[in-house]
Amino acid sequence: MDKLLIEGGASLRGEVRISGAKNCALPLMAASLLAGGKHTFRNVPRLRDITTMGSLLAHMGAVCEHGAMLEIDTSDIHTLTAPYELVKTMRASVLVLGPMLARHRRARVSLPGGCAIGARPINLHLKALEQMGVEIVLEHGYVVGEAKRLRGAPIRFDQVTVTGTENIMMAACLADGVTVLENAAREPEIVALADYLVRMGAQIEGAGTHEITITGVPELYPANCEVIPDRIEAGTYLAAAAITGGWLRLKGLRQEHIQSIVTKVVDAGVRVESGADYVDVRGNGRIGSVDMETQPYPGFPTDMQAQFMALMTLGDGVSVIKESIFENRFMHVLEMERMGADIHLDGRTAIVRGVKKLSGAPVMATDLRASASLVLAALAAEGITEINRIYHLDRGYEAIEKKLSAVGARIERVSGRGE
Ligand code: EPU
């Protein structure tokens, strides 16, 4: 298994181009199941999760080619099953459920099961589908859904769910009548998906607000679009500049998507300046401790909580970090403590007392964002940090060691066997 060796202490300097967002590309790929034919996506990042979704679609009969663009031909879908082997490696596989039911009125999708960041059930997806007339049974670890016809319905999510909103929005596009989604997620990835569905011929209003109205149409058609920039990758590089007291120019991002992250790092004393097509970040070597609570968009993203905590480990006081989205997204804390961080956990709250320095140590990556936070801590730590199990990072950060070494980080990927 590959690992990363990082020698901390180098202050980063230079330009980083932000890649397309995995969490935008994945639902777009699933949406290709809604209309037979060739769909074309630009700016798709080269990541393990994208390959996994490609394998899942290929298993179902699609032909995927990822060259300069990602082309998915869904003319010949013959298998309506998402098998355990693929779903267990990537929960977002559940995004094929809505499209399959909408177009083929039958689907068999493995239940995702446990996950490193919390229980993460899909009950809200299933309840909404039942309200739309889908009969759902759970058998042999699979969700089996069947419907004669999907019908539009008023649906209120008890909790804001990103992939839940995406799944039901896709299902509703081909349902009879009108679906109104209340308490819908408002993430930019939802808006991007709605834009693509509209290009395919769907009728959707209100994406990006709490209430989305979808009027079903009889048929959709293949189309093409560009994946939006990855706001979490952008936030991670922002934190990298801040934690190393360096200067980075981030290009290719959408500034309006990272507002909540920028606000927090500015509160922490980091200078952020925006140009027409870039954002400059300058750390000054001193990090102010600030409190933070994760919230659905436009609040501070849970996918940046671990990286922000890495920054706060070197803060000049005490920072209280509350994780409101997932109940168990603190797996990075123990690893950071091994590097000298002072963190006290109390349920969903972490109290982070800033320390003068972190020290390099062998650590283990536990999930995607936890891994990114360990990279950040390692960039600032004294000595060498060895980060194991970096396959998590490869799921969601395109060419991370290349991008970081191009701006002066001392980082090396070592291929190896075992852990
Ligand atoms: N929830 C339920 N029941 C459901 C669905 C969600 O109880 O049926 C709960 C979850 O357990 C969680 C909360 O609702 O406590 C919110 O979960 P949500 O459904 O919004 O998460 P998700 O759609 O599974 C997406 C991203 C995650 C990101 C979350 C929150 C994709 C493919 N994944 O997951 O991204 O953390 O939204 O913003 O879009 C990542 O990229 O590292 C990642 C984990």
Characterization of the model:
By secondary structure, the chain is an alpha/beta fold. 32% of the residues lie in helices and 24% in strands. The strands form 6 sheets. A 4-stranded mixed β-sheet has the order 22-23-1-24. A 4-stranded mixed β-sheet has the order 2-15-17-16. A 4-stranded mixed β-sheet has the order 4-5-3-14, with helices on one face. It is elongated, with a radius of gyration of 21 Å. The site of uridine-diphosphate-2(N-acetylglucosaminyl) butyric acid has 24 residues, from α1, α5, α6 and α12.
Write the layout of secondary structure elements.
Layout: E1 3-7, E2 13-17, H1 22-31, E3 38-42, H2 48-60, E4 63-66, E5 70-73, E6 81-82, H3 84-87, H4 97-104, E7 106-110, H5 123-131, E8 135-139, E9 142-146, E10 154-156, H6 162-173, E11 178-182, H7 188-199, E12 203-205, E13 212-215, E14 224-226, H8 231-243, E15 247-251, H9 259-267, E16 271-274, E17 278-282, E18 292-293, H10 305-312, E19 318-322, H11 331-338, E20 342-346, E21 349-353, E22 362-364, H12 368-380, E23 384-388, H13 391-396, H14 400-406, E24 410-414
Parallel strand pairs: 2-15, 3-14, 6-7, 10-11, 18-19, 22-23
Antiparallel strand pairs: 1-23, 1-24, 3-5, 4-5, 7-9, 8-9, 11-13, 12-13, 15-17, 16-17, 19-21, 20-21
The structure holds uridine-diphosphate-2(N-acetylglucosaminyl) butyric acid.
Uridine-diphosphate-2(N-acetylglucosaminyl) butyric acid is lined by residues 23, 26, 91-92, 118-125, 159, 161-164, 302-303, 325-326, 368-369, 396.
